């Protein structure tokens, strides 16, 4: 956007001009120093030889970054909210937040990206089904060890096939499923070790 008129020289110390990749931004020292560890704070508030900040002919700090994503960064420092226009990629803002070293903003953008992935898993949700065979006494244990998004679907009794002494053990098929959305990229996390052992035991008929 347009930077508007320059403030009178008296207020100049309070105002800071930034030239980000050829685009001018005007802000106050107070805003830029909101995050003490950030690159912008070091740039404007601890102007020392170690940063060796270059200024252009207008006296603006030169920053060799993409101005497109600088808006959300600056606005975040102004009011503490993360506002990203629809056409801006969150990953781009994340990249800049990391460059400017604004930890709280990095966290916010990552959360936003995660939420979006969960919301917009394109297309219908696919399900993966597994059938595990187990005995009655192993059921509760197995259901309680199901991990990572596996849901219990159905229990099918297949009668008793084992005879331990006089004691019949009821056998069951346990059907479990999990959603396969895009954020898992089709990688099905294996069930926990316990469930695996039960599976093997079940298949050794």
Automatic annotation (TrEMBL):
This is KCTD2 protein. Residues 14-117 form the BTB domain. One of its GO terms (cellular component) is Cul3-RING ubiquitin ligase complex. PANTHER family: BTB_POZ DOMAIN-CONTAINING PROTEIN KCTD2, POTASSIUM CHANNEL TETRAMERISATION DOMAIN CONTAINING PROTEIN. It comes from Toxostoma redivivum. Pfam families: BTB_2. GO terms for biological process: proteasome-mediated ubiquitin-dependent protein catabolic process; protein homooligomerization. GO terms for molecular function: cullin family protein binding. Transmembrane segments: none annotated. The gene is Kctd2. Gene3D superfamilies: 3.30.70.2000, 6.10.140.750, Potassium Channel Kv1.1, Chain A (3.30.710.10).
């Amino acid at each position: 956007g347009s930077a508007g008129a320059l403030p009178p020289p008296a207020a100049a110390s309070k105002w800071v001009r930034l030239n980000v990749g050829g685009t001018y931004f005007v802000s106050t020292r107070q805003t830029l120093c909101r995050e003490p560890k950030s690159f912008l704070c070091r740039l404007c508030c601890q102007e020392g030889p170690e940063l060796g900040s270059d200024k252009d002919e207008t006296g603006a700090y030169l920053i060799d970054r993409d101005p497109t994503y600088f808006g959300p960064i600056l606005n975040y420092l102004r009011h503490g909210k993360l506002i990203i226009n629809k056409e801006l990629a969150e990953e781009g803002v994340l990249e800049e937040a990391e460059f400017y070293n604004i930890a709280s903003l990095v966290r916010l953008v990552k959360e936003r990206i995660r939420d979006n992935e969960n919301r917009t898993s394109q297309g219908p949700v696919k399900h993966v089904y597994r059938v595990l065979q187990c005995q009655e006494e192993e059921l509760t244990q197995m259901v309680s060890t199901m991990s990572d998004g596996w849901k219990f679907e159905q229990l099918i009794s297949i009668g008793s096939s084992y005879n331990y002494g006089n004691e019949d053990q009821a056998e069951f098929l346990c059907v479990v499923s999990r959603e396969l959305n895009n954020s898992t990229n089709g990688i099905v996390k294996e069930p926990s070790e316990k469930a695996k052992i039960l599976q093997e035991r079940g298949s050794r008929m």
